[in-house]
Design goal:
Blueprint lengths: L4 E2 L11 H16 L7 E4 L13 E7 L7 H9 L2 E3 L8 E6 L6 E10 L3 H15 L1 H13 L8 H8 L1
Parallel strand pairs: 3-6
Antiparallel strand pairs: 1-6, 2-3, 4-5, 5-6
Helix pairs in contact: 3-4
Length: 164
């Protein structure tokens, strides 16, 4: 299994069963480095959907009680697990990434920190669970992702907007 993409690189690869194993290992690492509980950590994104092509990056959902009260010790704990806060600005979400290189150019994992069991948390899990349980929707989503490469668009921001 090869994980990671360079900054602004877009690539989708066939599903790899090793992604499940990698998520479980990362969850255990997060549990040992933070005060998070098992129920606060979920595998999301296409790498969590068996059989679908995906960017080779593991997406992790972390639910916290309140985004506004997260303090430096929480982020220091995440750094012990290899995750660094990004300067990405998203409503109701904080994003951290893990890198495979010392220059911080190749991202292998993302953590999406949201408030536990509120709208963003529920939306992300609903979308994952819907695709897991609906073969036709999964195929349509995969075709949508593949059709991006038939456009003249490039870069991760364009890819994300295209899928939306």
């Amino acid at each position: 299994m090869k994980l990671g993409l360079q900054n602004d690189e877009v690539l989708v690869v066939p599903y790899d069963n090793a992604w499940k194993v990698e998520f479980k290992q990362i969850r255990e690492e997060l549990l040992s480095c933070t005060r998070l509980s098992n129920h606060q950590i979920e595998h999301i994104g296409s790498t969590s959907i068996e059989g679908i092509r995906a960017k080779p990056i593991i997406d992790i959902l972390v639910g916290v009680e309140n985004l506004e009260t997260l303090e430096k010790p929480f982020f220091k704990d995440l750094e012990r697990a290899g995750f660094y806060r990004l300067r990405v600005v998203r409503p109701s979400e904080v994003v951290c990434a893990k890198f495979s290189d010392e220059a911080f150019q190749v991202k292998t994992h993302f953590i999406h920190i949201v408030q536990y069991e509120v709208e963003k948390w529920q939306q992300l899990l609903f979308f994952r669970d819907f695709l897991r349980s609906n073969e036709e929707a999964k195929k349509q989503y995969e075709q949508l992702k593949e059709s991006f490469f038939q456009t003249n668009l490039s870069g991760i921001n364009s890819y994300t907007k295209y899928k939306e």
